[in-house]
Amino acid sequence: MITSKQRSKLKSIAMTEDTILQVGKNGIIDTLVVQVSDALKARELIKMKVQDGCMLSPAEAAEELAEKTKSEVVQVIGNKFVLFKRNPQNPKIDLKTK
Fold first, then answer.
1. Would you state the pLDDT for residue 96?
2. What would the 3-class secondary structure string for the chain be?
3. Are residues 52 and 23 in contact, defined by beta-carbon separation less than 8 angstroms?
4. What CA–CA distance (Å, rounded) separates 21 from 81?
5. What domains sit in the chain, N to C, each tagged with a CATH number?
6. Over the stretch 37-88, which tens digit does the pLDDT of each residue have?
7. Exposed, middle or buried: residue 71 (CB in 10 Å: 0-12, 13-18, 19+)?
8. Rounded CA separation 93/45 (Å)
9. pTM score, two decimals?
């Protein structure tokens, strides 16, 4: 579980990140879950987009993917959302707050 200060730090980092994956009209399929898991392992923090025509809202998609990848929803803004999952073997983001 991340604290509100850590969440704030992750939000500021996410602002400069590009959207790397999209939830399409097929919703959350197994291949997408695998792609998200792999991306989280490599990056820890990823930004995603929900395309027009998807039956899920961005918040629903974020929650479902977070559950399936054991990650945390950092934020949902418009049709985009940010997920975070610490990689214990190779941490990339320093979550220490002052």
1. 82
2. CCCHHHHHHHHHHHCCCCEEEEEECCECCHHHHHHHHHHHHHHCEEEEEECCCCCCCHHHHHHHHHHHHCCEEEEEECCEEEEECCCCCCCCCCCCCC
3. no
4. 10
5. 4-84 (3.30.110.60)
6. 999 999 999 999 999 999 999 999 999 999 999 999 999 999 999 999 999 8
7. buried
8. 8
9. 0.95
